[in-house]
Amino acid sequence: MKQPGNIPTHQLSSQHATLHRDKTRTSSFGYDQLPTNKRLTGFEIYSTDGMIPDYGPAKSGFYRFGILTQGSLQVQLGLEHFKVSACALNFSIPGQIHAKSNVSPDIFGYYLLFEENFLQNLLSQHHLGAEFPFLNYTGQQIFNCNQVEIDELTSLLLKINEELHQLNSGRETAIKMYLYLMLLTARRSYERQHLSVPLSDPGTSSYLVTRFHKLVSEHFLSLRQVADYAALLHVTPNHLNRIVKNISSRTASDAISEMLAQEAKVLLRSTSLSAAEIAYQLNFSDPAAFSRFFKKSTGLTPLKYRLQETKNGAAVFGQ
């Protein structure tokens, strides 16, 4: 199998902001009305006031750090679905397919967007995912904190916002240090709760399915066969299929297909590539095979899905 080409991802830019912010609702917090001369490369910060409630599926070239202080929403990370409520942190990482929906009317919180190299000089390890377990596929990316931790995180975040709106000396360094302290506070909560320890015994079926879902979310573009994942998990393909079907009511192949369909949705929503170009990019034998796969997965042809998303306000780059 040939390796898939580079998949476009959303980058931090004014264009990206239109995908997650309601232009008719403005806020004085963070980047919403921040003058250009006060903006930093590779970093943005917002409150949920003015956030578009439904977002994705999408892929981003940066990290997202969300703090929910009130209300609830549904978050999807790859094949995993979560209900996020007050006093929760949620993270997504570059290249990860993610979405949010069912945002409650009383929602409030904050989210920070930042690129890998924004904190490069402060890292003791080579990359963020090595230093902070919730910033890689193997860790728990959504977890609750206690109120003291939430208050500490919010205090640091408000200091970032204060620095953003001024032009004091050492401003960018201070913002980076406050962000690093926020990540450190989150890691201490993670460690306090022993979240690095599996929620279920490594020998149980539920643990195997969770590991399988995380591996598929990370490798589905290059690994398309159940046998590939069975080898990574040190089980037989038949055993993996049986356990996944028992736990999730779908086959392991269905899970791989779901991730591939999500990737196709990202390309249809976020690029101007034709269905034929997407078929080639995703390694289908021909456009007809891709169209059959997509309709079986979603109930719509690729063209109808793109038209529906465009009508609903999804941005298609290049158009």
TrEMBL record:
Top-level taxon in the UniProt lineage: Bacteria
Keyword DNA-binding: yes
Gene3D superfamilies: Homeodomain-like
Domain HTH araC/xylS-type: 210-308
Pfam families in UniProt: HTH_18 (PF12833)
Keywords: DNA-binding, Transcription, Transcription regulation
Transmembrane segments: none
UniProt-listed InterPro entries: Homeodomain-like_sf, HTH-like, HTH_AraC, Tscrpt_reg_AraC-type_HTH
PROSITE patterns: HTH_ARAC_FAMILY_2
PANTHER family cross-referenced by the UniProt entry: ARAC-FAMILY TRANSCRIPTIONAL REGULATOR, TRANSCRIPTIONAL REGULATORY PROTEIN
Protein name: Helix-turn-helix domain-containing protein
Biological source species: Chitinophaga filiformis
Lineage: Bacteria, Pseudomonadati, Bacteroidota, Chitinophagia, Chitinophagales
